[in-house]
Structures are given as structure tokens and as C-alpha cells.
Design goal:
The protein is of the alpha+beta class. The chain has helices at about 5-30, 35-55, 60-85, 95-115, 120-140, 145-175, 190-235, 255-260, 280-295, 335-350, 360-380, 395-400, 400-420, 440-455, 485-500, and strands at about 240-245, 250, 295-305, 310-325, 325-335, 380-390, 425, 430-435, 460, 465, 470-475, 505-510.
């Protein structure tokens, strides 16, 4: 039965067009990742165009249907070879291939017009196919390492088949096609078999390219996964991925497990609420509201809990990211508990007297300003008490400063016990103390008297009984001063009047006639 090869060619046109679309889709999807697929796409287009023009032989001019067709077919094979090499990151010059292609086209033209011969044109094309098929085989199987060979084997097998088909066509041209007219397409059972075999190899070539790209993608994904896992689990801070909808932990790193003092299997699949992660529901609501409003939060301190119930402070960073169409919260937590404790300690040290722990001069001045503003707005009174120890200098002189420091700490304890939570205490000098009370002179004078009696009792230091007393002066806001300087000056004046009278007493400003000699102590400007 004599079969028409033109039908085979038409099938090849359709098949190559489909494969061209497939390779084009691969190139479009991966062009930002891999080089070379664009060349393969061009190669498939050239071959598809060549086969389409071959099918039109007899309807178009012989130069196009013969010379141009063969040139396009071989040029498409060369373009595919360049694409394969670029995909494998092999850089070679293809000038010699272009020279071979030009020689091939010249021979095809010669055997089409000067010495018309279909068998010789078939031999020329088949030799070119065998040569370039061998180049594909070397590139995809022989010259690559074993790991790469697994990804390129499909292309190598396809071109092994093309090489065998080329050799069979050469044999057929020598022995079966001698009587063909110069422009005839060969027909027959063998040619149809070879044509359909070629179609199968084209599918294998396109499939091999697909496998090659997918294998490379999977290898890159594995590398990215390993790299991500290394970064994720090696990060110095706790990281967790949680679903926005219910707070369930999708994944977490080792540092997150260490932070909560739980194993990974105890964390993943549970919500942060079930983990007892939040210090309070209000804290959680505040964070959720912040994420809803801004899409993220940056460096927000939150109170959190470990699995054993211990509190901690975490600096929280959260970004809302889409994963498979679902909102996922990427949270990074830095444990800043010790850091915040240190900051509080430093802040406290900057505001307190290191010996007694009372507010220092600057901090007490800030407290007076704040209290005066509040009292002014409410129409209330404040009492400012200046207290100076009597007979303290001999303690330092006779027993040393170490003993004197112990006495000062015991003085502080007795004053704090007497004043309680109502007043604010400060130390503004060696043996000078201040007390701020939120009420008027009657109660303030009573508190001052209690302090005087408390300090009048002997102090026991290392078996020594040490006796001192104190002089207390009181000024009331706003009666005795409407600003801090005036109020402090008048409280100091009242205290001086007690000192002048012999000490160990309590005086409210204005109770004793003014004596200009009090200024001998010197005015202090800003008193705190």
C-alpha cells in the first residue's frame, strides 16, 4: 500500500505547533529563573514554520518550499542546541555551526537547481541531523555529571532517536529513493514509519524539556527549602507562622520553642490562646487591632507568658502575608525581658539616691511640679517638708562614714514607715531630706511631729547606740508659695528657724516672726 507522506508532514506541523506552545509556556513561566528556554522556543517555531512550508510544496515557489524549508529545519535544531547549552550554563561559540548551516543551505540549493536530486538533499539533511543530534547527545548525556544527567536524559534519548532516524534516512536515500523526481516528497511504508517515529521523538523532545525544567525547579525548590529552613531555624529570634483567622500555629522555629519552653509538636496545630501565650486578652486584642489597621506592627513591647507561667516581655514584629490565598501572620519575637529590666534599673538609678533609694533632687523636683499642677487643677493643697538632721556631723567624725551611711538608711526606713504611702520622700543632700504631702498644714505638722519622734529614738549600729534628732520646716501650697522655688525657699526658711531655736522641732512657715538672719545659709535658686 502506497501511503502519502504529505499527510505525515501535516501531522508533524500540528504536533510541532502544539509542542511550540508548550515550550513557549515553559519559557514564559520560568524566564526569570532559567536561561535558554527562549532559544528552544525559537527553535520549535522555526521547525514548525519549516514543516508548514514543506506541506505547501507544489503550491509555493520551489526555493521557499525546498531551500528555505531545509534551512529553517536545521536552524531550528541549532537554536534548540544553543538553548540546551544555555540552560545548562554552558557558554560556547556557535560560529562553526553557522558556517556548517550556510554550507548545508548551499548544498541544498545546489541539489535543487544545479544538480536536482531528492536523494542527495535527503542525505544532506540527514547528515546534518545526525551531526547535531550527536551534539545534543554529548551535551545532555556525555559531558554532564550524573546529577545533571538525570534532568537532561529525556532530551538525550530523544536525539539518540533522531540520530538513528538520520542514519536510516541516509540508508533509504542510497537504496530506495534513487528514482525520485527532484521536488517529490518520498512516500511509502518506510517513510511513513520514519515520519511517525520522528513525531514520537518530537513529543519526547518536548517532554524531555518539560522534565528538565521541572527537575531544575524541584532542585531549586529543595535548595530554597534547605536555605529557608537553615535561616528559619537558625534565626536568633523566635519566629512563628499563624493563621490570621484563628491564630493556629502553622510553623515555628527552634527559638520559638525555646522561648515558650515547649517542644515543636506541642506548638504546631494549636492556637496562641491555647498555648497561654498572651499575658492578657486585652494585650492580644490590642495587637490584633493594630494588625487590622496597619497590616503589620513593628517593635511593639507585649507581655507574654512561658509555658511554666513566667512572665516575659517580647518585642513583637508582625507582618500579614498571603499564603495560598489565606492570610498568615509572620511574627518575630525578641525576648527583651532582661533588657527592659536593665533599662528600668538604669532609669531608676537616674532618679534615685544610691544610698537610700529615695528620689534624688532632680526627680523630686519633677514630682513637685507634677503635684502642684494637679493640686492647682483640683483646688487642693500640698505641704512641702524640709528636714535636716541634728547632730549628724559628729556621727561621721566619730564613727566614720560607713556608720553614718547605716544611720542614713535607718533614718530613711523610719521616715518611710511614718509617712506611708501618702507622701513622697526625697534626699537632696548629705543629711537633708524632703517630704511632699497631699494635704494642708495641720496634718503635715502632725506627720512632721511623728517623724521627729521616730528619729529621736536612738539608732543601733553594730552595738553602738547613736542619738540624733531633726529639724523640720513646712510650707503649704498655695498659701506659702505658688511656684516651686518660692515654696521650697519658705520650707527651708521654716526649717532654719527650728535650727536657730536649737533643733529637734517642727515649724510651719509663718508661725515664727521673720528673722533676716536666716538668709545666712544662702538662697539656693532652684531648690531641687
Amino acid at each position: 500500500m502506497n501511503l502519502d507522506f504529505r499527510t505525515v508532514v501535516l501531522g508533524g506541523v500540528i504536533l510541532f505547533c502544539v509542542c511550540t506552545l508548550l515550550v513557549g509556556s515553559l519559557w514564559r513561566q520560568t524566564r526569570s529563573r532559567f536561561d535558554g528556554l527562549g532559544h528552544s522556543f525559537v527553535g520549535f517555531m522555526l521547525i514548525s514554520t519549516g514543516l508548514g512550508l514543506m506541506f505547501l510544496r507544489g503550491s509555493i515557489c520551489p526555493f521557499i518550499s525546498v531551500v528555505v524549508v531545509n534551512g529553517l529545519l536545521v536552524l531550528g535544531i541549532i537554536a534548540g542546541l544553543v538553548g540546551l547549552e544555555r540552560f545548562l550554563e554552558i557558554r560556547r561559540s556557535h560560529r562553526s555551526d553557522l558556517v556548517i548551516w550556510a554550507l548545508f543551505v548551499s548544498l541544498i540549493a545546489y541539489f535543487a537547481y544545479v544538480d536536482p536530486s531528492t536523494p542527495k538533499r535527503i542525505i544532506c539533511f540527514s547528515v546534518a541531523l545526525v551531526y547535531f543530534s550527536w551534539r545534543y547527545i554529548k551535551t545532555s548525556i556525555i559531558e554532564v555529571d550524573s546529577s545533571t544527567r538525570r534532568t537532561t536524559l529525556g532530551v538525550g534519548v530523544a536525539f539518540t532517536g533522531f540520530l538513528i532516524l538520520g542514519l536510516l534516512r541516509i540508508g533509504a536515500a542510497f537504496f530506495l529513493y534513487r528514482d525520485l523526481h527532484s521536488l517529490e516528497l518520498p512516500s511509502g511504508t518506510l517513510e511513513v514509519f520514519l515520519g511517525y517515529s520522528q513525531h514520537a521523538l518530537v513529543v519526547l523532545w518536548a517532554y524531555g524539556l518539560t522534565l528538565m525544567v521541572n527537575s531544575r525547579l524541584m532542585a531549586e525548590l529543595d535548595r530554597e527549602r534547605v536555605k529557608f529552613s537553615s535561616i528559619f531555624n537558625g534565626a536568633p529570634h523566635a519566629i512563628a507562622l499563624t493563621r490570621q483567622s484563628d491564630g493556629m500555629v502553622i510553623d515555628s522555629n527552634w527559638e520559638f520553642s525555646r522561648l515558650l519552653e515547649l517542644e515543636d509538636r506541642q506548638i504546631v496545630g494549636r492556637s496562641t490562646v491555647d498555648l497561654g501565650f498572651w499575658g492578657s486578652s486585652e494585650e492580644r486584642s490590642r495587637i490584633i487591632d493594630g494588625i487590622k489597621s496597619n497590616g503589620s506592627i513593628k517593635a511593639v513591647d507585649v507581655r507574654l507568658k512561658r509555658s511554666n507561667g513566667d512572665d516575659m516581655i517580647g518585642s513583637l514584629f508582625v507582618d500579614l502575608v498571603p499564603v495560598n490565598g489565606e492570610g498568615v501572620l509572620l511574627s518575630t519575637i525578641m525576648d527583651v525581658t532582661e533588657q527592659r529590666k536593665m533599662e528600668l534599673q538604669i532609669a531608676k538609678m537616674a532618679r534615685t539616691d544610691p544610698l537610700t533609694g529615695l528620689l534624688n533632687r532632680a526627680a523630686f523636683s519633677d514630682e513637685v511640679d507634677r503635684a502642684m499642677e494637679e493640686a492647682s487643677s483640683k483646688g487642693e493643697k500640698l505641704s512641702l517638708m524640709f528636714l535636716d538632721l541634728d547632730g549628724f556631723k559628729p556621727v561621721n567624725d566619730d564613727f566614720g562614714h560607713a556608720v553614718g551611711d547605716v544611720v542614713l538608711r535607718q533614718v530613711t526606713e523610719r521616715m518611710a514607715e511614718t509617712v506611708g504611702s501618702e507622701g513622697t520622700l526625697g534626699r537632696i543632700g548629705g543629711d537633708e531630706f524632703v517630704v511632699l504631702l497631699p494635704f494642708g498644714e495641720k496634718r503635715a505638722e502632725s506627720v512632721g511631729e511623728e517623724i521627729r519622734l521616730a528619729l529621736e529614738r536612738p539608732f543601733d549600729v553594730g552595738g553602738r547606740s547613736i542619738g540624733i534628732s531633726c529639724s523640720v520646716g513646712i510650707a503649704v501650697y498655695p498659701d506659702h508659695g505658688k511656684d516651686e522655688i518660692e515654696l521650697a525657699k519658705n520650707a527651708d526658711h521654716a526649717m532654719y528657724m527650728v535650727k536657730k531655736a536649737g533643733g529637734n522641732g517642727v515649724e510651719v512657715f509663718g508661725q515664727t516672726a521673720f528673722d533676716g538672719d536666716w538668709r545666712r545659709k544662702g538662697e539656693r535658686g532652684r531648690w531641687f
